[in-house]
Design goal:
Blueprint lengths: L1 H22 L7 H34 L2 H28 L2 H24 L5 H29 L5 H29 L2 H21 L15 H14 L1 H32 L3 H25 L5 H20 L6 H29 L5 H30 L1 H21 L1 H12 L3 H21 L1
Helix pairs in contact: 2-3, 2-5, 2-6, 2-7, 3-5, 3-8, 3-13, 4-5, 4-7, 5-13, 6-7, 6-10, 6-12, 8-13, 9-10, 9-13, 9-14, 9-15, 10-12, 11-12, 11-14, 13-14
GO molecular function, one term: transmembrane transporter activity
InterPro entries: MFS, MFS_dom, MFS_trans_sf
Keywords: Cell membrane, Membrane, Transmembrane, Transmembrane helix
């Protein structure tokens, strides 16, 4: 009887998957043009957002000269996104994702315009900057799940890694250019003008999304109408797929360790290599440039079919690089720069394929909720990693913490690549690459048969 029940449950689950696939909208024929249109708008929005963010950081630095206030500013920019992303995912699944994206960009732009006007009237303060950082983070909590769950509706599965890499490169370029551009504009044209530019960038993003033809696909079930039930359904989707659940736990650990390490690079330059600001900037530039090189390689290659294996290898070798970095002596700064550059290339193969695993695995009608949960994992891992690294590095020393963190990251990579439940998940994801081709052949063969019947 148990075998019969098990078989019935499997048949029911398969029927649900078949129904989900049947409901999926077809990919638009001009999907490349749509993606490029969206990408251009997002490029202006993200660049101006990072510029205004770093202008705010510079204002807090000049005004308070306090590491505590800078830490509070960082928390204001991270915590709202981490806490609200699950709700943002629910909204992305419940409503038309095109309008969710437009509303999120419009909200951030309106807040930037309002803050700019307040500063223009002479009411600038540290508290105002903190509020602006928090409000921008709220907008991102709704924008990121909606954007990441929209891409699978526009892009063929075999190109998801490339598109994710393209989006990742945009964020990386913003991280490189944003601080320079933001602080330069802050000193030349003033804080309020940087915020006005941010509002203009958001307006352009809204305009490009408005002109893009994005399929209207969202969850119309009764469950989706109730926010709490809908949020529970997102957790249930992850819980039902134990492979994704295990992967999420390991990835959170790896991200937490890396978030802490990234904050220690300047201190590593100063303490271990007796460096100055110029040497620290060389290290940051080496990482930024080589990470773009790695993303370029991944964009051209596409990542292959075994995406989780690629993520695992990236994590393992990134950990090895951290261990080698911690073993360097004070007279080996040039090797520190080289290893940092190598890590930039290696780490580029982590995020893009990881996101594609989720996009291929999760049903489209629940994609927003799952992406929201993973955004929370990413956002909350940063403050956890920062707190852990700050406390532990005081006792172990910065160089020794690099070694410890490297060992943990490498173990995470090994687990991602060797646990049976994850190797099974990786093989199942690899099998989905062939689905579009198979469907196409079946359709073409059927059309040929129908044409032959007509001729007869």
């Amino acid at each position: 009887m148990s075998a019969i029940e098990k078989q019935a449950a499997e048949e029911t689950e398969q029927k649900k998957k078949d129904v989900s696939k049947a409901k999926e909208p077809g990919l638009p024929q001009n999907w490349k043009r749509i993606v490029i249109t969206i990408w251009i708008g997002q490029a202006f929005s993200i660049l101006t957002a990072y510029s205004s963010m770093y202008a705010g950081v510079w204002y807090v630095t000049e005004t308070t000269d306090s590491a505590l206030m800078l830490a509070i500013a960082s928390l204001c920019s991270m915590l709202p996104q981490g806490l609200l992303s699950p709700i943002g995912g629910v909204v992305a699944d419940r409503f038309n994702r095109k309008y969710v994206l437009m509303a999120a960009d419009a909200f951030v732009g309106a807040m930037a315009l309002l803050m700019g006007m307040i500063i223009f009237m002479g009411h600038v303060s540290v508290e105002l900057v903190l509020v602006m950082s928090a409000l921008r983070s709220v907008g991102q909590a709704f924008h990121i799940p909606a954007m990441e769950s929209t891409m699978p509706l526009l892009v063929p599965k075999r190109h998801l890694v490339r598109i994710n890499t393209l989006n990742q490169s945009l964020w990386s370029m913003a991280l490189i250019v944003g601080p320079v551009f933001g602080i330069f504009l802050y000193t030349v044209i003033g804080f309020q003008m940087v915020l006005f530019l941010n509002a203009l960038g958001c307006a352009l993003a809204v305009a490009t999304i408005a002109t893009a033809k994005i399929p209207d696909f969202h969850d119309t079930s009764d469950e989706a109408r109730h926010p709490i039930k809908s949020l529970k359904a997102g957790f249930a989707t992850l819980n039902a797929d134990r492979g994704l659940l295990v992967m999420a736990a390991i990835v959170m650990g790896v991200m937490a360790m890396y978030a802490g390490i990234n904050s220690l690079f300047p201190l590593m330059t100063y303490d271990q290599f007796n460096g100055d600001g110029y040497m620290a900037s060389v290290v940051e530039a080496a990482y930024g440039v080589t990470s773009l090189v790695g993303m370029g390689i991944l964009f051209v290659w596409g990542g292959g079919h075994r995406l989780l294996r690629l993520v695992a290898l990236s994590g393992f070798f990134a950990g090895i690089i951290l261990v080698l970095t911690g073993l360097l002596t004070p007279d080996m700064f040039i090797f520190f720069v080289i290893l940092t550059g190598v890590s930039g290339v290696i780490e580029a193969f982590f995020n893009g394929p990881l996101l594609a695993v989720l996009q291929k695995r999760v049903p489209p009608e629940k994609m927003g909720r799952v992406m929201g949960l993973f955004t929370t994992v990413s956002a909350l891992s940063s403050p956890i990693g920062l707190a852990l690294a700050g406390a532990c590095a005081e006792f172990t020393g910065v160089a020794n913490w690099f070694i410890i963190a490297g060992v943990v990251v490498s173990i995470g990579g090994i687990l991602l690549g060797t646990l049976p439940i994850l190797t099974k998940l990786d093989k199942e994801i690899a099998a989905t690459f062939d689905e579009p081709k198979v469907v196409k052949r079946k359709v073409s063969s059927r059309s040929k048969k129908s044409e032959a019947g007509i001729e007869e």
